[in-house]
Every structure is written in C-alpha cells, then in structure tokens.
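Quarterly update from the structural biology core.
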Amino acid sequence: MGGFLYGTTSQGGDADAGTVFRLALVGGDASTVHVFAGGASEPVPNGDGMAPAGRLVLANDGRLYGVTSNGGPNRSVHPDGDGTLFSVGADGSYKVVYAFGANAGDGSHPVDAPVKARNGTLFGTTENGNTHYTGT
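Predicted structure, tokenized:
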C-alpha cells in the first residue's frame, strides 16, 4: 500500500501492548504507525486494543484491517478486554471499527486476521464469547 509493507507486533511499544509498523519497499526504512495503549495493568481496558493477532487485510476501501486479541472497552470474558477490529489508512490513520464483547452473542478474543470474500465483505472468528462461550 503506497510503497510500504505493513505488519503488526503483538508486543512492544510504550505499554508493551503491540504496534502497527510499515517498512518502505525502497530504502527499507521502518516506522511505527500506531502504538497500542493498554496492558494488563490498566484499571479499565484501553479503547484501541492490545496484542494484535494475525496479518493485516487490504479491504476494498483501501484500508488495512486487523484484530487485537485483547484490549478494547469491553470485558465480557477477558479481564484485559475482549479485543477489537481496527483499520489503518495509507496516511497512517488508525481507528477502531468494532469492539468485541459489547453484546452477549457477538464473541470476544479474535485470534486471527479477518478474511476478505470476493464481494469485499470481511469475515472473522472469535475464540470466546456468545451465550455459550464457545466463540463465533
């Protein structure tokens, strides 16, 4: 995307909660795009997530999408938060698209990247959550 390769680290950054980085295809310079803000020591889960999991997926809107397995504002299953779906733009802009665990049936703790269908729809799974805590 825009002459860069993008990826995540599950740890590192100021709070050791992970980062999104990009590496220039020409010149090889790496830079941090986003530093996740939370950790287990936070009294309330952070809003942007922690511990990104899996790869990033380029969606039809030109943004990269990924998940964090913990963090976010909800704690239905995990004391460190139920995870988030996030996106990153070519300009480095970061936003939380969805915070898992808000409803009893929506799942929590995603552990792998979303998958893009031919029509551009993103699908994913969660390890925990729903009314029987078996994932979605």
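The mean pLDDT is 85.
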